[in-house]
Design goal:
2 copies of one chain form a homodimer. By secondary structure, chain A is of the alpha+beta class. Chain A is about 25% helix and about 35% strand. The first copy, chain A, has 7 helices and 10 strands. The longest helix of chain A has 13 residues. The model of chain A has no long low-confidence stretch (mean pLDDT about 95). At the A-B interface, strand 3, strand 7, strand 8 and strand 10 of A face strand 3, strand 7, strand 8 and strand 10 of B. The structure holds a DNA duplex.
Chain lengths: ~240, ~240
DNA sequence: AAGTGGTCTAGACCACTGA
DNA sequence: CAGTGGTCTAGACCACTTG
């Protein structure tokens, strides 16, 4: 049984994954330590590490120092979502992008927005509403609050030309971002802005960002009917 | 300027990231090659590699052999979603999980389902409808088609006890999975099953899986009103 | 305190792919 | 075909975390 072939970390990953699939190591079981597997499979420990990181990133195993590597008890489907800035998304669909500022005013944040930021004391922020268009038709309605305290420069941005979405993504890195997806019934107001009917079902993407402990922005991106979020997973199984 | 400190790959990542944020390297720019950066920062090339892989995974840079490393032109928000099996999800909310099989019958797949699988020839599959309950109340309605050809064992599974969701996740690895999220208006049928009103807005998660070229299953998981998908991103900026 | 995963290094070779 | 990223190795040391 000579290890004549050079094993890549993907080979190693698949070898280990296979043992999990065929129940050599069942859910919750502890796997041999890296060094042991390296010896067994005939490669460097670093290579086993690389393979394990992939399995760990995919949610198949869990690793802890001293605790060892265990097969995860409950399988999860782990997907990666890419959310581009809205202009790019429109352009990638070969449509002409348009943008309209609907409203821009400083105001005291309502409790629901304070809750998004995990703030107890109500403060004043810049409230921005805007419409993103694709081929002249409404595409996404954006309802946003920006902290003037954390992002004072926002006052100097001409938001009637450039969307806050774009400016913030390009200029304000964040250290934490919370995301939420849910469905809402279109209100009269939504219907009017998005050129659709009340009670239509709309997908909403809500994003809240902080830099350190300081709130940056929270935004509800309300999509038009039929909008879909897509993603794809490449599993590490099969031929 | 002695490199007295031992640089970790995170230090290196942050150093490079910072140069991107402060526009030393702007969108689209080419970064120095790994070896050059390693020299510059005073670490091994492997360490730069590790840092770069992270930046690349986060969607901040793009790397190509021979092409070099470039700052991505359009920033994206990249999020990771974990979708557990429904039973786990319910239990993690400290609710009691329940399950009901609503329908199970072999039938010719409708064109929309064939489209999900990218199939042109209509075939027969097992059509399963089921209800997942949390604390006796409807939680998610599952509308699924399973390929009896790819997964003949499904015939022997007692689907009145065990959900197809769970059995498939535990027993059928896939090599590809397509995911879609969108909103729908509840139909009369949905309303009745989910104990809500017609026209409510519902979040739908649609998943389609294959093993190699062979279809395994496609499922629409229709949630109850108020359902939210959550995730969090840890950015690599700030203190 | 000891076991196990995480990281770093230095060097070699491989594998894409753009000029 | 040559430049650049990708991977592998062997060995050392570090840093968690649990028994």
């Amino acid at each position: 049984m000579a290890e004549s072939v050079r094993l890549s970390w993907k080979n190693v990953r698949d070898a280990i994954h296979e043992r999990i699939l065929d129940s050599t190591y069942g859910p919750g079981d502890k796997l041999p330590k890296d060094a042991r597997l390296a010896e067994e499979l005939g490669c460097a420990r670093t290579t086993v590490q690389r393979a394990m990181r992939d399995l760990s990133d995919s949610g198949i195993v869990e690793r802890r120092r001293k605790g060892g590597t265990h097969v995860r008890l409950d399988p999860v489907t782990r997907a990666t979502l890419d959310i581009p800035i809205t202009r790019r998304e429109v352009e990638q669909n070969d449509a002409v992008y348009g943008y309209q500022l609907v409203k821009k005013v400083s105001a005291k944040i309502p409790p629901s927005i304070a809750a998004n930021f995990e703030l107890s004391t109500p403060t004043t922020m810049l409230h921005i509403e805007a419409l993103h268009l694709a081929d002249q038709r409404p595409y996404i309605y954006e309802d946003r609050w920006v902290s003037e305290h954390t992002v004072p420069e926002i006052a100097d941005v001409d938001l009637s030309t450039e969307s806050a979405n774009e400016w913030l993504v390009r200029n304000r890195p964040y250290s934490r971002c919370d995301l939420r997806f849910f469905a809402i019934k279109a209100s009269e107001y939504h219907a009017k802005l998005l050129d659709t009917s009340p009670n239509e079902a709309l997908l909403v993407m809500e994003r809240t960002t902080w830099i350190g402990k300081n709130p940056i922005t929270t935004v509800k991106a309300v999509s038009t009917p039929g909008y879909q979020l897509l993603t794809q997973i490449q599993g590490s199984a099969g031929p």
